[in-house]
Amino acid sequence: MAIIKIEIVSDAVCPWCYLGYRRLQKAINLYKKTYPGGSQDNFELVWKPYFLNPDALKESVLVQDRMNSRMGPEKSAEIQKTFRSIGMREGILFKFNGYVGNTKLSHQLLHLASSKPLSSETSTQTLVAEELFRFQYELEKDISQIDTLVDIGTLCGLNGDEVRTYLEEDRGRVEVEEEEREVKASGMKGVPHYIIGGQYHLEGAVDVSDFFDIFVQLKEGKKEE
């Protein structure tokens, strides 16, 4: 049995990160179903912070307003249409009538979740990451708000009171900011970014086959040792 570690550098307000994660899921499932002995291998996902807009104010704004101000209404509508089309193929119902704000608290929630023991094949941190994407882009919730993050934490098995206290007291901020600085200092300039097995790097919402091929290379490389 092999353990394949995948570090995912991401920000929940990035639609490409959501798409990339869904493709990663498909690649893992395909590997487990089709590669000889793959069903016995485990994948360890570790989420790393990246602030797409580190200077964003705490007061969130409408996604539509943000997109329109950056690229104009016509281009914004075109991009939203593209994401809806691509998203449908990945099982994502992209919506763009929610809010977007500072994402530091969402990364602090992920940091809290990373400290929880593994109770199933999917870690609490990954469950939280999934819900952050879903709340942002399918439920059109404001993930910069503590109330929303408490709801997400509770859905993922965390204690709601613990989550609220953790975020209201701004715990984990120093650790998250330091980790994010290290990520950018390593040369990463955008997300999503994947570090697989500590040696293979992929950038962007790459195809399922790109992930799968690396899984096979890692597995067969171990066989040759």
From TrEMBL:
One of its GO terms (molecular function) is oxidoreductase activity. It comes from Aspergillus wentii DTO 134E9. It holds the Pfam family DSBA. This is DSBA-like thioredoxin domain-containing protein. The lineage of its organism: Eukaryota, Fungi, Dikarya, Ascomycota, Pezizomycotina. Gene3D superfamilies: Glutaredoxin. InterPro entries: DSBA-like_thioredoxin_dom (IPR001853), Thioredoxin-like_sf (IPR036249). Residues 6-211 form the DSBA-like thioredoxin domain.
